[in-house]
Write a structure and sequence with these properties.
Blueprint (H helix, E strand, L loop, with lengths): L4 E4 L4 H9 L12 E7 L5 E8 L6 H6 L12 H4 L2 H6 L7
Antiparallel strand pairs: 1-2, 2-3
């Protein structure tokens, strides 16, 4: 198993290239609602990135690429619908 560290990552050319190669948008990386992180190996190589965005509505195609499928909100289990994310933070038009 690799020993990886998760470290805050600034917006950079490397981050832009990684997101572009994954088919994600890069035009609005500097949005204040986003934070990025790098997975760093013991030899200091970046082996991947992660990010957080509050109430994202534009990543549907990315999640489809990695095997997720959309469901109508009325088919989402009540335990998930009652979470803070779906009950208040996500707009009703967000993809489930």
């Amino acid at each position: 198993m690799r020993n990886l560290k998760l470290e805050p990552a600034p917006v950079s050319d490397a981050l832009r290239a990684a997101l572009t190669s994954a088919g994600l948008l890069v035009d609005d990386l500097d949005c204040s609602e986003r934070s990025y992180f790098a997975f760093v190996a013991a030899d200091r190589r970046v082996v991947g990135y992660s990010g957080l965005e509050t109430a994202t509505t534009g990543a549907e195609s990315f999640f489809e690429l990695i095997g997720f499928t959309s469901v109508e909100r009325d088919r989402v289990p009540p335990a998930i619908l009652s979470t803070r994310q779906l009950s208040g933070l996500c707009s009703a038009s967000a993809t489930s």
